[in-house]
């Protein structure tokens, strides 16, 4: 986790921007004259999917140009790209590659998890394929994983992360409304399910503590569960948190500040729609703008939204006596 921590220190900003494009989040200038549906409908053809994938990549480039030097990390959500098939996967890889070339830490939000050899194959996101490629073709510095299958579904990812000096973030207490259905269930020993997962995360990462005191096995802890997040911070003193749910999902700067350690470290906070969709609140946008002007407006809006988030986090951490040192 040292690379992410150092990137955060360089920018003074513990935030990550989720690159989760959808047709509704793109200005019309990026889409041309076509209407697209993803999720509740199919794109009209492979050609349409290819054009939308190119639009996603161009949009991501605009966002990243705006936040470069302000935000240390980006988090592309692979589902948005997989929905477009092969062209979407190419756009995902190209986004990750471009992000790395621009100096961002790249966290692939892939949420994989499976048994044995299948988990090892998925772990190729970090390590590549032995005997075929010495490095991963995905251009990710870390990934998210799902622990539901237990240790044999996680350890292949941890082993790959150790081999390539990368990171893994395990879902522990997620921000979605129905997470309580499983994560809050009580076990016979008195722990909740998410607390059991937290203890497993501690054990999975206890032999990979970096120079800054944090393991390369992190935890996903939603901003929408601030009390649980505070308790997990105490329970997991050497685990770095990825905190989704800020902004659009209801988590506040004060909520997330409580999940940082006493020195204002130990966590990175994600915002997706709040940053990449910020152009929609810009009064200078209208459909008559040229494509170049729309690109510039998306970049500028993303920059201003990222700076606003940075300031909100700084103020909240300072108010709780957690100024970064």
TrEMBL record:
Reaction equations catalysed: orotidine 5'-phosphate + H(+) = UMP + CO2
Top-rank lineage group of the source organism: Bacteria
Residues at the catalytic site: 111 (proton donor)
One Pfam family this sequence matches: OMPdecase
Domain called Orotidine 5'-phosphate decarboxylase: residue spans: 14-294
GO MF annotation, one: orotidine-5'-phosphate decarboxylase activity
EC number(s) on file: 4.1.1.23
Keyword entries, A-Z: Decarboxylase, Lyase, Pyrimidine biosynthesis
TM annotation in the entry: none
InterPro entries, per the entry: Aldolase_TIM, OMPdecase_AS, OMPdecase_type-2, OMPdeCOase_dom, RibuloseP-bd_barrel
GO biological process entries: 'de novo' pyrimidine nucleobase biosynthetic process; 'de novo' UMP biosynthetic process
Pathway: Pyrimidine metabolism; UMP biosynthesis via de novo pathway; UMP from orotate: step 2/2
Family: Belongs to the OMP decarboxylase family. Type 2 subfamily.
Protein name: Orotidine 5'-phosphate decarboxylase
Source organism of this protein record: Bifidobacterium crudilactis
Lineage of origin: Bacteria, Bacillati, Actinomycetota, Actinomycetes, Bifidobacteriales
Gene name linked to the record: pyrF
């Amino acid at each position: 986790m040292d690379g992410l921590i150092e990137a955060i220190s360089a920018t003074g900003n513990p935030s990550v921007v989720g690159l989760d494009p959808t047709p509704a989040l793109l200005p019309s200038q990026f889409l041309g004259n076509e209407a697209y549906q993803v999720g509740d409908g199919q794109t009209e053809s492979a050609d349409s999917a290819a054009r939308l994938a190119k639009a996603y990549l161009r949009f991501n480039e605009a966002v990243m140009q705006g936040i470069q030097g302000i935000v240390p990390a980006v988090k592309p959500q692979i589902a948005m790209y997989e929905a477009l098939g092969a062209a979407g996967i190419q756009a995902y890889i190209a986004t990750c590659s471009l992000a790395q070339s621009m100096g961002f830490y790249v966290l692939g939000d892939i949420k994989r998890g499976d048994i044995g050899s299948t988990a090892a194959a998925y772990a190729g996101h970090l390590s590549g394929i032995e005997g075929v490629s010495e490095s991963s073709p995905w251009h990710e510095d870390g990934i998210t994983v799902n622990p539901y299958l237990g240790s044999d579904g996680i350890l292949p990812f941890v082993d790959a992360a150790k081999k390539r000096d990368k990171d893994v973030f395990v879902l522990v207490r997620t921000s979605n409304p129905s997470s309580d259905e499983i994560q809050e269930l009580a076990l016979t020993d008195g722990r909740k399910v998410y607390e059991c997962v937290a203890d497993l995360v501690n054990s999975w990462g206890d032999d990979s503590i970096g120079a800054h005191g944090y393991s390369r096995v992190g935890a996903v802890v939603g901003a929408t569960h601030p009390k649980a997040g505070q308790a997990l911070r105490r329970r997991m003193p050497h685990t770095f948190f990825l905190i989704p749910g800020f902004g659009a999902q209801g988590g506040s700067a004060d909520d997330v500040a409580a999940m940082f350690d006493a020195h204002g470290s130990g966590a990175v906070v994600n915002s997706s729609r709040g940053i990449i969709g910020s152009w929609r609140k810009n009064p200078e946008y209208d459909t008559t703008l040229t494509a170049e002007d729309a690109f510039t407006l998306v970049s500028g809006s993303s920059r201003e939204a990222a700076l606003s988030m940075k300031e909100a986090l700084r103020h909240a951490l300072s108010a709780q006596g957690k100024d970064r040192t």
